[in-house]
Each structure stands twice: as C-alpha cells, then as structure tokens.
Amino acid sequence: MSLTNDEESAKRALADEAAEAVEGGLEAVSNKRIKLEHDGIADQNLKGIQEEDVGICQYISPSIDGFHGILKQRYTDFLVNEIGMDGKVVYLVDEGFPNSKDRRKERRLMDQKQNSDNVNNDKIDELLLKEEEVSNMKQPKYELKAGHRIELLNFFGEEDLNKIEELFNTGNHMETSKSFDDKATRSKIHKLLREAFQNKLESLTTDSNTLKVALAVKSNRNNRRRNNDHIENGDGSNNSSSGNSNNGKKDGDPNYGLGPIKDHLILTMYKENKETMEVASLLAKFLRIPTKWIRYAGTKDRRGITVQKLSIERLRVDRVNNLNRILKGIRIGSFNYSDTGLSLGNLKGNEFVITIKEVEPYDKSKNLEKLAEDSFKTLKEIGFINYYGMQRFGTFSISTHQIGVKLLQNKWKEAAELLLSDQDLVAPDSVEARQIWKKTRNASLALKKMPRRFSAEFAILKVLEKEKLDDNGDYNDHSYFQGVMQIPRNLRIMYGHAYQSYVWNCVASKRIELFGLQIVEGDLVIIDENIESIDQLNQEDAEDEFVEDIRKNTFIRARPVTTEDIESKKYSIYDVVLPTPGFDVLYPSNPKLKQVYIDIMSKDNLDPFQMSRKVREFSLAGSYRSLIGKVGDLSYYIRHYSNNDESLVLSDLDILRKRQDFEKKKLMNFSLKIIKKLKKWKKIKKNL
C-alpha cells in the first residue's frame, strides 16, 4: 500500500501565520527595535519532517503504483477508539449523569410515560368516540359493603372512617387517632382496608403503631416506594439519609446506582485535538488532585478525536460528574467503580476511522478505485511494515529524535539550542520568543514571550534566566544540563525513545530491502512465555512512550531463528521482531542486519552496544517490536465531497447528540400526546 503523510497545504498556512507573527519586530530591554528575520518562512515549498527523514522508505507491495492524499487535514478526519482487554471497543455512550434539575425533569416525563402504561388507550379512544353516550353514566368511586363498614367502625370509629372516605375527594392522607399495638390486629386492618376499598387505599404502620392511610397509586415498585415516602413524611419529601448511602447526591439517589464506592473510578473520556497527558493534567487541576492519580491504558494522538478509558484514584463520582459543564473539547461519562485502576498496556489495541482527503493516483492515468482496491487487499491479506509513526517525531522542522541524539551524547547545550531554535516550521505563537533568543541570548526576555504550553522550551528558559553568564557571555554546560532536567520527565524520556524509534525504522527498511518478507537465519523471535501473542508485545511496545525504558522485574527474551526453524516452518514473518537499541536486548545474529545497527548509529557517534548512561532517563534498555503487523476488521469507502472542511464521518459525540435529540423529541411528543389524552379522559370522568 502506498500512502503519504503530505500536509503541505496545512504547513503553508502555518508558515504564513508565522510570518505574520514576526512581522513588525519586537521590543528589547533598551526599547530599541530588534530587526527580526525568519529565513525561509515565506517559502511556499516549506516542508516539515518527511517519512524518509525518519527511516520510513519501504513498501509491502512496491509493484502497486499507489496514491497520495492529505492525512489529518482536519482533526475530525482521524478517529480513534480504544479496545479494552475484554476485546470491546470503548465508545462515548453518555455524558455522565444529569444534574438534579435535569433528573427531576426527566423523572416527571418518565412518570408520565409509566402512568400512561396503566391507561387503556383503546378504551380512551372508545370513550372519546362515545363521549355523548356515556356522559350520563354514574359510577361510584368505591363500593363499601355494609359488613365491611361495620368492621371498620369497630376498629376506627365513625370520625376516622369519615376521614378515610374523604381521601377520595381530597387525595390527601390521614393518620388514625387510635393506635394498634397488636401486630396481628394491624395485619387484619391492613387487609380489611384493601378488601373494603377494592385496593384503592394503601396503609402503613407508624412508629407509634397508628396507621397512615392514602390513595393507592397504580405504578411500579419504585413509584410505590415514593408514595410510601409521601405517606411517611406528609409533604412528599424523601427521608433518605444523607450519609454514604447517597454519596453526596442532592436528590437522594444512592450513588447514582453504581453500588459501593471502591478505590478507583473508571470513566470513558472523549477528547478533541488534545493530548492524553494534557487532559489528565487538566482534570487533575479541576479536581485538585495529583496528576498521578489519573491513569490510562495508552496515550492517544493529539490531532484527532479519540475515546479511551481513564481511572481516577480515591474519588467519588459526584465530584467528577459535573466537570462536563466546564470542559471544552472533552466529555466524560460511563462511570463505574473498580477495585483496580488502569495501567499502561491494559488494552488490546485501537480502532481507527481515518479520512484521507484530496486522494489522487501517482499515475494520473490509473483508476483510483482499482488502485484503492489493490492497496487495501494487500493491507488486509499481507499487512504492513510496523513502522513507528510520524507522530513520534514531532511536527516541527527539527525532529524529536535529533534532540534525542544530543541527549544521548550528553551534549546538553546543543540539545537546548535545538529546542529553542528558530526553525523553518514551528508553532507561530512561539516564533517571537525563539527569535529573541536567537538575536539576544537573553533568557529572561525570551521567557516572557514563550507560551507555557511549550513545556520543554519554557522549562529551559526558566532555569537559564536565573543562571549567571560566563566570561564569553553564554551559560555554562551545567546550566544547560539543569535546564534540560527541568523538562517534564515524560517529555525527557520521549526524546530518547524517539531516537530508538528512528533507528528501528531504518533497520526495518533495510531488513525489507535485503530479505523481503522471507524469514531468514538470524532473525529474532520472542521466546518469553509471559507474552501470549505478538499483538500483546506490539501493544506493550506501543505504549512505552511515557514509561521509563529500564527493565526491572519483567524481562522479555528473544532468540535467533535457526535453519531447522525455517525448514520446519515453525515461525513466519509475522513472528519476526527487531529490537530498539538498548542495553538489555539481543541484536539479530544475522551479520548484515547487525551491521545496519552499527552503521546507522555510528553516524551519530553512538554505539548500539553502549546504551547505559549516568543519567537514568537516558539509560535505555531497549524493547522488541514485530516487523510486520496485520489489520483486523478492515473496510474502506470512497466518498466525493466539495468542501475540504467538511467532516465525512460522525464522531462518537455527534452520534450521541443525534440520539439524544431524537430521544428527547420522541419523549416530548409522546408526553404531549398522553397529556392531551389524559385531559380528555379527566373531562370524561367528570361526566361519569
């Protein structure tokens, strides 16, 4: 399959924005204008990192001409849904629980619907047609037989019995003036009331052994319970306790029906154009908890719409449920409690819906539909080279793996300079700060203009502004080291991992070039009995981006393939793995392949057999990744459109909102219909 990650049009727009951002210059300390330049910023052929820059240069089926298009032209063109360990895809199916006002409104509508089920609609229609015929019919509200009346008078007396009968007019409730201490007597009275008034009354015993009597409501068990509460309190209020049973819920619903509170709250998180770590930090800020309390099974792409599970420690659902009111581009829901939280790698994979726009064949004479059919057939039947994707290498002109090289070389100043450099392609709102640094070397001035969201650059400048300059007017190497070490730890680790990914990609490309899809002697296969499948290995490796790459208790082992293995066909190309460079991996015994590692890394003055470092974050153990991957449940569609900004697929939130709108409309229409019929029914009853 032949696809590119060509986003030139978007990058050109980015370059134009950057040019506007720097136009007009900046203010220096002396209030003099500093002339700023941004070489190449107006270049309309400006490009960022390309696939070949990070080792991606081979195809599974080079004989297919292929096609090209724009990937992620809008973030809505890239949808990702996590697949849990149970094999189920995680979807956003709700936005938590409604607030008290919405719940009361919803309950009233549901009560109307439930009560309407007890009304014979056929009979209503029949009565409406015969309204004039039945207008003179008279029926008593109840029939109290003489024998029952005598028994009731013996128990209650005439005054209380009159109050009971008056309930049919007032609809209120009453309490007997007489108490009944004998349980058998109370049971007999309850039964008598039901029989005498044809189950149209309900009675309860109070703490003082008097009886409370009210009209019965024909409804389900929950409504009967609410009616009992009405009898008990006399004002319709709910007398549920406000302790742990309702978990702080204002309307008294016990813990939203989630059951006992446990150590971890599991929820579904939907995000648009945001990083997983960014969302975790934001939630932690709003909830006023440490970020480490929020855990997830895997990090998802920033540029896209993604849905995944999160777990939060030591928190009740009522604190989290209301966050949807203030979150932008984030929705949470599907809450439940669990004894255990999530950890990186606790997923089976991800489901993708990817939209590629402006698709054209490389050869204009070829038919796009036929090319797509051939490409996707190859992808489905053979698979794909399991390259590390472009997102691992960043979106600026300087790749994250280039920064990783400097960190692995212990060249702290050069690493910092790369991060702070005025690159050809960089976020427009950081251009001003970068050019100040380039022109003045004044960390304090640059820091004032550097947005906080550029956490690496901001951290370095914040350290340097407090450091003293040396005799050459620069900061010493230790100052730069201190700045680098103030970069958030996960980000520091990512740079080293990016270099490992770069080397892996280069080796994978050379492996395909040398041997194709044939398994050869000296290839590596996993022998670890704890790895159930190659998919599990791939997932563990895919989620290592924010995990320190130093093995402690878990050791995944590999061994070279022998001639006997090949002859017995014990392994296939799908079992072959390649290591990322590290101190705790085995390299392929095939001499040509092993030499590829040496040649690639020697260009950066690094040695694949010397990957330990004094700084722990840059001491990399390495990991294994399968050479060829396969896609499950693959399908594709070709759609024609007229506007590039048009979303061609619906996100989970789009689907949820459409369903909610439909249900609301359906419920409201049903409610209005029932109310209308009930009004007519009441009008008829007055004439009965």
UniProtKB/TrEMBL annotation:
One of its GO terms (cellular component) is box H/ACA snoRNP complex. Keywords: Isomerase, tRNA processing. GO terms for biological process: enzyme-directed rRNA pseudouridine synthesis; mRNA pseudouridine synthesis; snRNA pseudouridine synthesis; tRNA pseudouridine synthesis. Residues 217-256 are annotated as: Disordered. The keyword Isomerase applies. Pfam families: TruD. GO terms for molecular function: pseudouridine synthase activity; RNA binding. It comes from the Eukaryota. Belongs to the pseudouridine synthase TruD family. This is TRUD domain-containing protein. It comes from Pachysolen tannophilus NRRL Y-2460.
